[in-house]
């Protein structure tokens, strides 16, 4: 395992905030969307971290394989999900012996060194034609990022803010760059969408919003994907690789 990347993941895992507040609500809503499209019996989750999504995926009855680069998270995942196969590995070093009906990448592609490489690998791990890959990432064009640029708090929509750096993000995708990564990886995009119409920061929301407000704005994001706080893609392995 690449020692620099492993150390990077361990640093993130010791101070992770993905299971807290509005972040947890976004993961739960992301599951709602992903669950509409689940198929077959097997499911691979890449980068489960604290297992917020995993807890929900475990209710689907699918055979779960969890690939996580942090040993700290892997220990916790093995304890909480004894029926799942937990693999401590970088995605770049993962070599499964089978293909999967479903692959979930929730808040993964903004972290990795090369998103196209990871998607290309995942394409090979996905059952051709009938399998489905679901990936969700923060959206650079989110309303709150556009407002931050106007207010002078961010130099550009795709610049990394303080929370991005805390989470170990390496980039913030806009919708075009997100779709382009899938196209370059040879995956066939079936659906592009969004959720979580986010006008202000997580801290402001958590201090002042009710749970009902949070859920309403999650739903509104599905109506306005290009400016939603989170964007997602549902894709399949077409079986024939198209060179990038």
Distance from N terminus to C terminus (CA atoms, Å) equals: 27 Å
State the strand order across the main sheet: 3-2-1-4-5-7-6
Name the helicity range: 25-40%
Task: Characterize the main sheet.
Answer: 7 strands, mixed
Percentage of residues in strands = 15-25%
Computed Rg: 17 Å
Characterize the quaternary organization of these chains: single chain
Number of helices: 10
Written overview of the protein:
The chain has 244 residues and is α/β, with parallel strands linked by helices. The protein has ten helices and seven strands. Strand 2, helix 4 and strand 3 form a beta-alpha-beta unit.
Summarize the structure.
This protein is α/β, with parallel strands linked by helices. Helices cover 40% and strands 17% of the residues.
Topology:
Layout: H1 3-13, H2 21-35, E1 42-46, H3 52-57, E2 63-68, H4 71-80, E3 85-88, E4 102-106, H5 115-125, E5 132-138, H6 143-150, H7 162-167, H8 175-184, E6 188-195, H9 202-208, H10 211-223, E7 230-236
Parallel strand pairs: 1-2, 1-4, 2-3, 4-5
Antiparallel strand pairs: 5-7, 6-7
Defining traits:
single chain; 244 residues; alpha/beta; seven-stranded mixed sheet; 7 strands; 40% helix
């Amino acid at each position: 395992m690449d020692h620099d990347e492993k150390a990077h993941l361990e640093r993130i895992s010791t101070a992770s905030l993905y299971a807290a507040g509005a972040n947890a609500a976004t993961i739960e809503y992301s599951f709602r969307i992903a669950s509409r499209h689940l198929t077959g019996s097997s499911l691979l989750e890449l980068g489960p971290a604290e297992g917020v999504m995993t807890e929900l995926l475990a209710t689907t009855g699918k055979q779960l394989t969890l690939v996580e680069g942090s040993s700290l998270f892997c220990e916790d995942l093995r304890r909480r999900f004894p029926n799942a196969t937990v693999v401590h590995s970088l995605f770049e070093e993962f070599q499964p012996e089978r293909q999967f009906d479903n692959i979930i990448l929730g808040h993964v592609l903004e972290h990795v060194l090369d998103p196209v490489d990871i998607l290309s690998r995942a394409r090979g791990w996905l059952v051709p034609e009938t399998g489905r890959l679901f990936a969700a990432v923060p959206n650079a064009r989110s309303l709150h990022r556009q407002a931050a640029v106007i207010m002078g708090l961010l130099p550009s929509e795709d610049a990394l803010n303080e929370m991005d750096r805390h989470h170990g993000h390496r980039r913030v995708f806009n919708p075009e760059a997100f779709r382009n990564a899938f196209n370059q990886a040879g995956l066939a995009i079936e659906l592009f969408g969004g959720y979580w119409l986010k006008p202000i920061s997580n801290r402001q929301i958590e201090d002042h919003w009710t749970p009902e407000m949070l859920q309403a704005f999650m739903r509104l994001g599905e109506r306005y994907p290009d400016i939603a706080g989170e964007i997602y893609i549902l894709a399949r392995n077409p079986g024939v690789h198209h060179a990038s």
